[in-house]
């Protein structure tokens, strides 16, 4: 068979795409795959590409992206590609429906593909109901299970699948992808890559989320104001925290990342090691005012606040004490820290 498999890249997952390509070209497709990895790494895209290649009608390149089958697959309307994707628990009736569907021969292609997104949402009955089909699906069928947490699936389910683990991607690959495909500058791309923790989907989500950019800008301004003596102004800042209360964890993480950058910059004098690399001037300015010991104390204060908020201490008071304590450290070193 001379058919070539044409997989467009899924950012940073080339090794796995190569493996799937080899499986396809040698006609050694597993009857069941389990794609495991964090949300945003491209599991679903990968499953859809594999499904498209399996149902494509072209004789020389698969998926050809041109044939009827590829077009239907792309629009999510291919009768031989079934996808289960839902918010809540996947119950036994849904799996039974899928099994009945698999037993019917493909309508338009030689193959049939079933994708179960968030397979860990299947309850135990649903997982048990799937076992027999996972082990011995009809020859034309391939099942692809996707999950962020493989260990919440029954061992009997896992052992019947070929496991493919998607790993977080090198930050430089994400940076390069954002510059090339989203037309943003290198510093901003590097900053988003650093915040993404190696998850491409998260980097793209952050880029497209104006709220994230707003919160980060505000946090940097607040950190700047904490360098001054103006007590009233500090208390004014609590309004921002109140207004953004549902996102408090993200906000405190942004603050920690900011002070970590200041710490790293003071330690290395190299902006390239920082997360907020696009804020060079602000980092340099603040780093000149807060030394390593102070920065360490500030990070400790923010982490302590995170813990306190988790245990339901009064929100407003907690934030107020945090800001005053940080200011105290900035201005006087770790002096008389207030306790709640
Ligand atoms: Zn095609």
Short description:
With 340 residues, the protein is α/β, with parallel strands linked by helices. Helix content is 55%, strand content 9%. It folds into two domains: 4-165, P-loop containing nucleotide triphosphate hydrolases (Rossmann fold, 3-Layer(aba) Sandwich), CATH 3.40.50.300; 209-332, Zinc Finger, Delta Prime, domain 3.
List the helices and strands and how they pair.
Layout: E1 4-5, H1 14-25, E2 32-36, H2 43-55, E3 61-62, H3 68-75, E4 81-84, H4 92-103, E5 112-116, H5 124-135, E6 141-147, H6 155-158, E7 162-165, H7 171-182, H8 186-196, H9 200-207, H10 210-225, H11 231-243, H12 248-268, H13 280-287, H14 292-310, H15 315-332
Parallel strand pairs: 1-3, 2-6, 2-7, 4-5, 5-6
Helix pairs in contact: 2-3, 4-5, 7-8, 8-9, 10-12, 11-15, 12-13, 12-14, 14-15
This protein binds zinc ion.
The unique ligands bound to this protein are:
zinc ion
Query: How many beta strands in the DSSP annotation?
Result: 7
Largest sheet: 5 strands, parallel
| Whole-number tally of structural domains | 2
- Level-2 CATH architecture of the largest domain: 3-Layer(aba) Sandwich
| Percentage of residues in helical conformation | 55-70%
Quick check: average pLDDT?
91
**Spatial order of strands in the largest sheet:** 4-5-6-2-7
Supply the CATH superfamily name of the largest domain. Answer: P-loop containing nucleotide triphosphate hydrolases
How far apart are the first and last residues' alpha carbons, in Å?
72 Å
Write down the CATH class of the largest domain: Alpha Beta
Strand percentage: 5-15%
Uncertain regions: pLDDT < 50 for 5+ in a row? Answer: none
Assembly category: single chain
- Rg estimate, integer Å: 25 Å
* Structural class by SSE content: alpha/beta
What is the overall silhouette?
elongated
Element pattern in H and E = EHEHEHEHEHEHEHHHHHHHHH
CATH fold node name of the largest domain: Rossmann fold
Number of helices: 15
């Amino acid at each position: 068979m001379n058919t070539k498999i044409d997989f467009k890249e899924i950012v940073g997952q080339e090794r796995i795409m190569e493996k799937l390509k080899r499986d396809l070209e040698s006609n050694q497709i597993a009857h069941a795959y389990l794609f495991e990895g964090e949300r945003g790494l491209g599991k679903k895209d990968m499953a859809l590409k594999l499904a498209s290649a399996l149902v494509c009608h072209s004789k020389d390149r698969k998926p050809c992206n041109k044939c009827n089958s590829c077009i239907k697959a792309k629009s999510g309307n291919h009768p031989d590609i079934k996808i289960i994707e839902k918010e809540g628990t996947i119950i036994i009736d849904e799996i039974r429906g899928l099994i009945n569907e698999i037993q019917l021969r493909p309508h338009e292609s030689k193959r049939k593909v079933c994708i179960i997104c968030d397979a860990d949402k299947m309850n135990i009955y649903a997982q048990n109901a799937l076992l027999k089909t996972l082990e011995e699906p009809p020859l034309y069928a391939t099942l692809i299970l996707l999950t962020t947490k493989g260990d919440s699936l029954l061992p009997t389910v896992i052992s019947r699948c070929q496991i493919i683990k998607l790993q977080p991607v090198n930050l430089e690959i994400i940076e390069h992808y954002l510059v090339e495909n989203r037309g943003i500058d290198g510093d901003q791309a590097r900053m988003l890559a650093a915040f993404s923790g190696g998850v491409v989907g998260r980097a793209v989500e952050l880029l497209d989320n104006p709220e994230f950019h707003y919160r980060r800008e505000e946090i940097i301004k607040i950190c700047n104001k904490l360098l001054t003596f103006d007590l009233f102004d500090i208390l004014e800042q609590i309004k921002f925290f109140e207004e953004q209360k549902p996102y408090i964890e993200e906000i405190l993480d942004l603050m920690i990342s900011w002070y970590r950058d200041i710490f790293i910059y003071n330690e290395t004098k190299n902006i390239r090691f920082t997360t907020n690399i696009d804020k060079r001037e602000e980092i340099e300015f603040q780093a000149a005012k807060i030394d390593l010991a102070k920065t360490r104390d500030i990070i400790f204060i923010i982490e302590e606040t995170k813990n306190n908020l988790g245990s339901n201490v009064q929100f407003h008071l907690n934030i107020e004490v945090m800001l005053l304590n940080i200011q105290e450290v900035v201005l006087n070193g770790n002096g008389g820290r207030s306790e709640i």
